[in-house]
Structure formats: C-alpha cells, structure tokens
Amino acid sequence: MAESPIFHSPSSDPQMDQATAKARQTFKFFWREMAWERRRIVPGLDVAAVKVACSDPPEIRAQNPDGLEVEHMWIVDVDFDGKRIQGTLINSPHTLRSFEEGDQVTVTGKQLSDWMYAIAGHVYGGFTVDVLRSRMSTSERTQHDKAWGLDFGPVGVVPIVPPDYIGDPAPKKKGLFSFFGAATAPAPQDYAKVAATEHPMSVNMRQSLEATLAKNPSLVHETDDHGYNFLHQLSLAGSYDGVDICLKCGADPKKPARNGMTPLALAKCLGWKRVIERLQQAGATN
Q1: How many structural domains are present in the chain?
Q2: Which candidate in 192, 223, 247, 253 could, as Cys together with 284 as Cys, close a disulfide (CB 3.0–4.6 Å)?
Q3: 110 by DSSP, 3-state: which?
Q4: What residues contact residue 99 under an 8 Å CB cut-off, 6+ apart?
Q5: Which has the higher per-residue pLDDT, 184 or 87?
Q6: Which domain holds residue 78?
Q7: Are residues 144 and 213 in the same domain?
Q8: What does the CA dihedral 69, 72, 77, 78 come to, rounded to 10 degrees?
Q9: How many CB atoms lie within 10 A of CB 106?
C-alpha cells in the first residue's frame, strides 16, 4: 500500500464535507464487503481501509497550540462491532502527538471521513480521494494513482461495488483509436440499486448455510470474539438470505450480543431495511 495522504479539516470545505457525508451514508457497503471477505477462503480484496478523524486530548493539545486540531488518517485491519470502528493506523501524523503509525485506533462513526476497498486493482469508495484527485493536474493524478498501484477511475465517479454485483456491465476499456473521438464519461453507479441488491456471496451461500445448520443445529448459537452468533454477524452485514436461514433454523431474534446490541439494533445501525423487516416479522422489537 502506498504512503497515503493525510488531510486536515479546513474551516470551510463544502466539497470535502459532502464527500465525508457520502462516505458515512455508504459505509454499510464497505462493512458488508469486509464481512464477506472474512468468509472467503482466498482473499478477494487488494486493499481495505477507512479514513478517520483523529484529535489529541485537550491536555496534549494545550501543549501544542500550533498543531492541527484534527488530522484525517487511514486505518487498515478494520473491525466494526455496530458501535465503534477499530483498526491499525498506517499514517504518521503531521502534528498530532498522541498518535503514531502502527497504533490501534478506535473511533465512533462520527469520526469516519472516508472508506475504500479494491478488487483486482479497481477502487470502490474513496469519496474524499476523488475530491483530492479532482484538484490535481493530470500528471499529478497519474503519479498519485501509480503510487497507490490502483485504478481509481475517472474523476467524479465513485462506484461502491463491482458492477457485476448489480448486473451492470464492466466499464469499457479505452480502445486503440479512442483518441479519434470524444470519450464517453461512465455513468455514476445507481446507489439505490446497490442497496436493493443482495451481495452475491449472500445469495450463493444460502443453500450451504441451510444445509450446515440443519446438520449441526447448535452452530446457530455459537459466538465469535465479539460474542456475536451467526444472526448477529449477518444482521450487521446486511445479509437477508443469511438472516432468513438463521431464523428458520432457530436463532433467537431478541438475543443481545455481549455489547448489548440485538440483531435488530445491529441491522438498524447501518440501515439494512430488508433485514430489519425480516427480524421484525420474527418478533424482534429492539
């Protein structure tokens, strides 16, 4: 992974504010991809990172009056429990004194400023990165993308899932004679269509999950390091098919995890509408 840029919060930057708002609204799709990545036998993601706002505590800030109040830095090895985002810092801050590269960082959702992942070199997400790239010259943008070793695509278009997830064709590669005609700008991805479409791994694992739980019913009650059972995990990941199978195989829709969050609360924290409705049909109320 390239040395990734840090940016600080200016007093007023509407473009960055809009980009950050979009990143927060769509973080659910980043986490969904991360949840399925953990179930892949062969890793599918080249990169998966979240940008978060970091600040020194007041007592340290008082000793460093000329330092930046906030720096937005990238973390990897991302985990999310429905309340907090955790990961490993991969930046060295410019002026903050209570953070170092390699630190474990835990933040709330309000501190999220961006996310991105890459599959086969193609980047999904990266809303603030898109703003930064829009402010670069063509040569600067080329150098930026080369440093990352990733394809960020055209400026102004931020896809959040691979096109085949939602039945869209792959973007056309530039042809040998494309310079003779005007390039056609790719259409922005339909985020509503993304939200309405089940992740392909969720669809594909439905039959095998049902067979596994039918053969080993006790598995539906086993928990991971967070104290989450399959129903908790799949509710947070927005897997309608997985949630449906777990409920049919005896999972308790009202059982809280160790942190007190129920399957319904986990689905609600990321706004998975179909999962919320299915849990409510099963008797979940909070």
Answers
A1: 2
A2: 253
A3: helix
A4: 54, 56, 71, 73, 89, 93, 105
A5: 87
A6: 7-162
A7: no
A8: 90
A9: 14
| Confidence grade of residue 82 (pLDDT, cut at 50, 70, 90) | very high
Domain membership of residue 79 (yes or no) is: yes
Residue 91, in any domain of the structure: yes
**Stretch 166-181: mean pLDDT:** 65
Residue 188, C-beta contacts closer than 8 angstroms, at least 6 positions apart: 157, 158
**Same-domain pairing of 130 and 256:** no
CA–CA separation, 277 and 197 (whole Å) = 15
Any bridge partners for residue 125, and if so which?
Answer: 116
Asked whether the whole model's pTM tops 0.85, one would answer yes
Same-domain check for residues 156 and 204: no
Across the chain, how many H-helices and E-strands are there?
A: 10, 7
**162, 178, 210 — which closes off a domain?**
162
How far, in Å, CA of 158 to CA of 194, rounded?
Answer: 13
Q: Give the contacts of 217 (CB within 8 A, at least 6 positions apart).
A: 249, 250
